[in-house]
Amino acid sequence: MDHKTYAVIGTGAIGGYYGARLHHGGYDVHFLLNRDYQFVSEHGLKVESHYGDYSIPADTIKAYNTSHTMPKADVVIVALKTTQNHQLEELIRPLLKPDTLVLLLQNGIGAEQTLTNQLALDYTAGGLCFICSNKVGPGHIHHLDYGRLTLGVYGESGMPALTSVADDFQCCGVEVDVESSILDARWKKLLWNVPYNGLSAVLDTDTAQIMACSETVALVKAIMQEVCIAAEAMGSSLDPSLIDTMLNNTAKMKPYLTSMLLDRRNSREMELQYMYKNVLEMAAEQGVDMPKTEALYHQLCFINRLTAD
């Protein structure tokens, strides 16, 4: 096994879980923390999972409060919310080697392009996390279910590096799908995220309540159709049958609180740039109108401003 050095930027529900899986797989993993740094340094990282315990003791974990003291990495995993992406260039640059792969485990679209340009990289990668995982306390992660990753590359020359990282995750027991293009994968995830994240936040409700009302179901479907048209215009064709599949699957789900709803309820900034603003701007550049999505975005902006104030 090729044991790479991994750096995890953002040791929360996502970065902490996948970083711990890599650590238990025998990889050299270094964790960047902010508010939890002192606690994790003294008590370790606690990761409780329905797959088992992936905790890392204090005398074993490699924890840092600045990337300037971390070793250069073969792979940098970014698990921060996109609201923190303005910090990425400063955080990542000290970790780069000539062939470092930066992997963004984030929602939305457009971050890979931006970061590739900022850091003058030949390629980056992105990942979509299909997981139920929550941070329930300082250095304490509760993994409830799932955990599959869909990975894709931005820049064709990065595919060998991404395939190698996918192999590492699979060796650690993480189910992984590799797409030839991260953009195609991101549009597919947006097909669900755009309607359900936004409507749940605006209506302050869970997915079950959205699906219990025929009018909101019709609105979800209309927004999904707008996303399909925008994706097609950007060269990422989505199978129209995905809409009914996602509607049916969501109707069968247990009541789910989306990440955007949780951000609203906890007075945190919502991820609007990469999940809505970028989508609308890309569509407009191709002459595609998304009136229902745009109306939803404007309402979310209003709520976000109240949260910021």
TrEMBL record:
Residue ranges of the TM segments: none
**Catalytic activity, as annotated:** (R)-pantoate + NADP(+) = 2-dehydropantoate + NADPH + H(+)
Domain Ketopantoate reductase N-terminal, by residue range, is 6-154
What highest taxon heads this organism's lineage?
Bacteria
Please tell me one Gene Ontology term that the record gives under cellular component.
cytoplasm
Q: Which GO terms describe its molecular function?
A: 2-dehydropantoate 2-reductase activity
Pathway in which the depicted protein is active: Cofactor biosynthesis; (R)-pantothenate biosynthesis; (R)-pantoate from 3-methyl-2-oxobutanoate: step 2/2
Oxidoreductase as UniProt keyword: yes
Name a single GO biological process.
Answer: pantothenate biosynthetic process
Stored InterPro entries: 6-PGluconate_DH-like_C_sf, 6PGD_dom2, ApbA, KPA_reductase, KPR-Related, KPR_N, NAD(P)-bd_dom_sf
Q: Which UniProt keywords apply?
A: NADP, Oxidoreductase, Pantothenate biosynthesis
* Every Ketopantoate reductase C-terminal domain range: 182-300
E.C. no: 1.1.1.169
Reported function: Catalyzes the NADPH-dependent reduction of ketopantoate into pantoic acid.
NCBIfam families reported for this sequence: apbA_panE (TIGR00745), PRK06249.1 (NF004887)
PANTHER family given in the database record: 2-DEHYDROPANTOATE 2-REDUCTASE, PROBABLE 2-DEHYDROPANTOATE 2-REDUCTASE
The name of this protein is 2-dehydropantoate 2-reductase
